[in-house]
Design the sequence.
């Protein structure tokens, strides 16, 4: 095997490791929440829009509570000592991102018909989720750094 092939194989293994490690918990939670939705759809077959909105917020509430507990108990440092206070604070407020995203999905689904909602609602919800979560993480970073926002940074 050539050095280039060995290097590529090592990089591929590192990429696989990072991908699996970085996505394992999210993958498990995605399966859990999807199947929970399926179970409830069988037991309560006609959810109202408010039920769906509350489902999303309740699904995030567990992470919010646990993130707050982690921040309070660790002083903002993760167990591996990396000091992830900003991430913990930012993700503890994830209900804002989820609420905004689900709200946009409901609005898009209400306004659009003939299949367009199925195309545009997840796109719009995804964009809104990422943008709001970015703001949450920035606020968390700002708080973790001990700064208050005083306008745009100067170069």
Sequence:
């Amino acid at each position: 095997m050539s050095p280039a092939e060995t290097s590529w194989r090592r990089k591929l293994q590192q990429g696989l490791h990072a991908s699996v490690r970085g996505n394992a918990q999210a993958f498990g939670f995605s399966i859990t929440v999807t199947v929970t939705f399926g179970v409830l759809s069988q037991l309560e077959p006609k959810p109202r829009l408010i039920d769906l909105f509350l489902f999303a917020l309740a699904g995030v509430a567990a992470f919010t509570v646990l993130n707050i507990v982690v921040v309070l108990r660790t002083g903002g440092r993760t167990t591996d000592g990396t000091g992830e206070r900003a991430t913990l604070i930012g993700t503890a407020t994830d209900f804002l991102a989820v609420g905004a995203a689900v709200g946009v999905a409901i609005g898009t689904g209400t306004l659009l018909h003939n299949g367009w909602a199925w195309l545009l609602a997840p796109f719009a919800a995804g964009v809104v989720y990422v943008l709001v979560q970015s703001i949450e993480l920035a606020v968390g970073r700002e708080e973790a750094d001990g700064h208050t926002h005083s306008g745009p940074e100067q170069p």
Q: What stands out?
A: Residues 147-151 have pLDDT under 50 and may be disordered. Residues 1-46 form one domain. Residues 3-43 form the longest helix (41 residues). The helical segments are 3-43, 49-74, 85-92, 94-111, 116-144.
